[in-house]
């Protein structure tokens, strides 16, 4: 029950500023979780409010936050189109709504400078709350809600009422779009968006960006930008591509690559340690995806966890989890803070989950690894013009959460005929160990560029120090085609997962990539399970259990969904992206599955309870 007596505030995306996704409440436990029933539902009305051109690309990935009573006590969320809604947490009724009237369009072209004729990427994962401790009680905008809009504005609202904060920026908002369009490299309208919630560290508001994938080598600048929470004034900017030789991470970059490479952006979630004035960034890959010949070297700070001083933007330390990324292995999971011990001494840790399925654990202040990390040789032999890293960093513990090898025996089908169809389609591709590079003949990427651990991240029980996360176990392929030989090339307005070649502008190649599916029936060419919930003992660095996550019944493609052809449901696991939460009641809750279900697991055993 969400009453003032027993409600625990979930004041940040991920529960707390450190992204633990943990609730200390114990009222719901293994003994009574089966009694849960739906209390209320809230409909945003966005499907009716927007045309199909826009809603076709809309995603509901929001994590609501629950405000303290002094800030209104609302349950706060944003819709995919950026409307901010304050709900009564006990009843699900609206208290106030703010519509930023954000431009929702696709990518600009000379014929369509606003991008209104193409689908717009519509997503809003959350809003952020901040308290001005210098303002007197009851003052307007002492408690603020910050929204980052699709058309690149940062908006500040009075949390209790939803009114714009007049002393913030120009009448309540800061327009960041001119700076994004004129950065180096520049963007065109629609290529860069805000989708994640702002990160709050003391009186600084930091914003990451989502950038168009699979398009051009000189993709837009992926900077993280920070603003004063009271005034909206610029505080600092961090560019994940070091542009000058004065930057400690410049080694390995060529002047041309440092000038023209984009992305490396933070499209996932950031975390903060306000007491230490630290902001933790999970950075993504540099541009372009799947080919790195235009950007030789390791490409640091991309594909890294970067610790910045929140007040200044100064780099405190960083660690690169993937050198010279050509697999689209972005760090998208929110870094997660937890208190560990080593040799009897406190070890304030930050954990970075990755698409490779590896977990990296560091000292928050120094970047010292909790467990050793080894540079190990990885497959070589990239396409002409490629400059692969000879090694990649592997943590000694914990073990990888998903398989790291693909062999001929891993081709799978529900019948011998279907297995042979997969072998025929992909048997001539390169495959083997993790970090097998994209190739002219095509390469099977295992793990997939979707994960491992994706943007849903991990959840941690701070008492037991057990980590729980959902992982994807699906294959992916990537094939680079010389541009003068590619046929059927298209330039899609969104991420291309449909298998048609897409020209990588500024490179000699087109890219064909997608999920490893059978041409016979669009089923995976690898054996189930396709998703699991996994628990890790963080102190010991061991995996405690793995449970299949999701069933195939109504999500099967026709005619596989026929009850006469297969026994249903099939406990195979479904694609999964959003993350779990854990509670002091010993439960892990998760939706995030393609079968449209919400589940509870026992944290100690992995047993599905409900």
| SS-derived structural category | mainly beta
Query: Which stretches are low in confidence, meaning pLDDT under 50 for 5 or more residues running?
Result: 1-6, 493-497
Mean pLDDT: 93
Percent of residues in helices comes to: under 10%
Topology:
Blueprint: E1 22-23, H1 46-49, H2 52-55, E2 58-59, E3 65-66, E4 75-78, E5 84-87, E6 94-98, E7 122-123, E8 128-131, E9 143-148, E10 153-158, E11 173-175, H3 177-181, E12 192-193, E13 199-201, E14 204-207, E15 210-211, E16 224-228, E17 234-238, H4 255-260, E18 271-273, E19 278-282, E20 304-309, E21 315-320, E22 336-342, E23 345-353, E24 359-363, E25 373-377, E26 391-395, H5 416-426, E27 443-445, E28 458-461, E29 466-472, E30 476-482, E31 502-503, E32 509-515, E33 531-537, E34 542-548, E35 581-583, E36 587-590, E37 599-602
Parallel strand pairs: 1-35, 2-7
Antiparallel strand pairs: 3-4, 4-5, 5-6, 8-9, 9-10, 10-11, 12-15, 13-14, 14-16, 16-17, 18-19, 19-20, 20-21, 22-23, 23-24, 25-26, 27-30, 28-29, 29-33, 30-32, 31-32, 33-34, 35-36, 36-37
Describe it for me?
This protein is mostly beta strands and 610 residues long. A four-stranded mixed beta sheet has the order 1-35-36-37, with no helix packed on it. The longest helix has 11 residues, at 416-426. Mean pLDDT is 93; it is low at 1-6 and 493-497.
